[in-house]
Design goal:
The complex is a heterodimer. By secondary structure, chain A is an alpha/beta fold. Helix content of chain A is about 35%, strand content about 25%. The N and C termini of chain B lie far apart (about 55 Å). Chain B is mainly α. The longest helix of chain B has about 45 residues. Chain B is built from eight helices and no strands. The chains are: A alpha/beta, B mainly alpha.
Chain lengths: ~270, ~220
Amino acid sequence: MDGLPKDSNGLYRDTEDAPVLSVVNLTKQFGENRVLKGISVSVRKGEVISVIGPSGSGKSTFLRCINFLEMPTSGDVYFLGEKIDYSVSGLGPKLQFQKRLSEFRTHVGMVFQSYNLWLHKTVLENIIEAPVQVKKESKKKATDIAMDLLSRFGLEEKKDEYPIRLSGGQQQRVAIIRALAMSPQVMLFDEVTSALDPELVGEVLEVLKILAESGMTMLLVTHEMGFAAECSDRVLFFDNGIIEEEGPAKDVLTNPRKERTKKFLSRSIR
Amino acid sequence: MLNLSGTIDLIARYMPSILSSCVIVIELTLFTILISWVCGLFAGIGKSSKYKIFSYPCRFYIWFIRGTPTLIQVYLVYFGLPQFGIQMPPFTAGILALGINSGAYVAEIFRAGLSAIPRGQMESARALGMTYTKAMRRIILPQVVRIILPAITNEGITMLKNTSLLSTITVLELTLQTQVVIARTFRPFEFYIVASVLYLVMTTVLSHYSDKLEKKYALSI
């Protein structure tokens, strides 16, 4: 990754034709259990991709393999045309890969189902922690960026609260802001509304919608079919560790070709 | 037999030497706690390791320490090790033995605290580009410390009291000093009461401050 030209912000320069992120023939095996059986996806800049499918189909594992929270069993991940090295043996990822993996992760934001805000830090501290500690930004600059994001999403008066005092929806919005504060090139969303009370889902989807419209490159594992239909460019239907069907959102969701997809969609809540 | 003003005079006369032995108790306790945290941190993380080369020695250490009397462990270090040419002054042998002893208990406390932190705390730190070490230091350990504070204070108080065992290896701390005074005055009841009161003062101060610390940090989690 070091060989790529960087722009003035220290980010890797975009090349028009290269996908931001591509995954080639990714597999993942937990013991005897083959969770992913060869997944290949290319994500272009600004593209919003929804990943749907029954539980246990490997959607979340796929997302977690992209930023190596889960080490793939085989397959490659390319970021801006550059292959990301990873190692599966020995003491976790070997040391020489550790640094590059961490560097890669700063460009790929991830938001989790259970928010995972750090409980001992306030909202503001949560947001500026990684920019200051990892990107070595000044505390002042990081705070400015954080406050800007907080006010954009109507959370500025919560900046000194601890996560436990916030509603689920607020926590998840802070988690999204925390990821955004690193100015990532791609965002991964792992069922970010699944743990929320129904009346709180809307406020988080609203944030996702704003992000999608602002041109953020996004990969979402989701059960919100309405959102997938409205906001995503492409839908991947996962079943049993493979991509059973993929295509433009309208085609896959309203006019699926495969029997398996039809069955899944007819059973899921619209 | 209990002549009040005479007793008070007697106690006052020996008070300076008794109080100075309290300073020794405090020193012993602080060093012991320091050693126990280092031992406990490594043994706690080591025991939870999936690699047997780390987890087995840590398991053995914790099993041995918790299953044998503290006094025997003190004797092993002070009287036993010199047979192998490892000779230490009583003070050093004392804090080493008690520190290693307490470390085994701290390790278990620490392990419990570590497993109480949800997996997601580490994952979100790694996902933002932190290395394992940085995430451990900035995100996980501060939360573990808050959780284990009450248990770790308890262990500190136990250690303070256990320093009295070191009277048997000639460390002139409060218990041994009291015995010395009693040998001169033949007043065991009075002076053991004095020693008890002084131990009580020290343990109470310790738990008072840890209560304050606990309240201060409890708010944020």
